[in-house]
Fold these 3 entries.
Entry 1:
Amino acid sequence: MIESVLAVLAKAAEYEGITPGERQLIERRRTAECASLELQKGKKAFADGDTKAAVEHLARANAYYHSMKLAVVVMLLHLAPQLLQALSHFRNRFIYRPKTPT
């Protein structure tokens, strides 16, 4: 989905009838969508157990978002990836577990 938005923004930026302000707006939106894509790729890499790719994608996303939470996650991925995986499994199992009807 994000790739489709990026393709539309790239096509819009090529249009000759837009003003410099519109071109700047398109570029800002493209940057935001690229950061969102990097975040999604980082989450998927982490879920797949690919620590190196997760660090790369999440660090790129955090260059845009400037999030303390993302910075801590990237740091933990460098220092203790197994701990972060264990915390994630715990959260998924006990905190965000699916509700079953009783």
Note: The chain has one domain: 2-95.
Entry 2:
Amino acid sequence: MSNIANKTPDVLERSLNKALHNLIEEEELDISGDIPSDVFKTLIMALYKKYGHRVVILIDEYDKPMLDHINNVTTAEANREVLRGFVAVIINSTKIYDNLTKRCCYIYTKMV
């Protein structure tokens, strides 16, 4: 998350979406959308189909969009809500989406 712009919740959401679409382009996949959580879920499934293996998800410095605004509680909390929706794809997949659960095998988070 260190390279994701997070000045406002809107900027954070657009930056997440841009990062996902950069990966989609790099992997030569055909995925569209502008809601990061939807794009993320579709990307995981597309990578699984492309490679035939579970997808490993690394989220480094996941708390940076909140810590960068520790003195502005409103922005920090709004950024947390954006990230909550994004990361919920992983968390909820283990409870709801059996197909997605089979595709995700590890989640590594690193607090700095």
Note: Helices lie at 9-26, 36-51, 64-67, 73-93, 98-103.
Entry 3:
Amino acid sequence: MEQTDVSPIWLNKMERIALKLRYGDFNIEHESSLRKKAEHLYSRMSEEDKTSLIGYHITTGLFPPAIVKVGEDMADADLFDVDGNTGGVINNQISYFHRYLSYNRIFQCTFQ
């Protein structure tokens, strides 16, 4: 991949590498060397490639967002229901300051 041009096939391979780094199950030494190679390959991608959907998958695979732990502050953002509305019970996280906000895997939330 280091000598070939960046193409849709190249991006698909890069996406698989990034997802393996994010979700893979392998030893630390192999992960470290693979991550260095992947970050070097990532630097070859154009800004247009990085902002595409597959580029987003590659970026989040190589540089995953921070995970908020219990008791830590999290960024405030508007919360929407399944119809895209912000009214009613769901509006933004600051309304639930010092309350528990839990998300499940399909992005539904419950307030306690």
Note: Residues 67-112 form one domain.
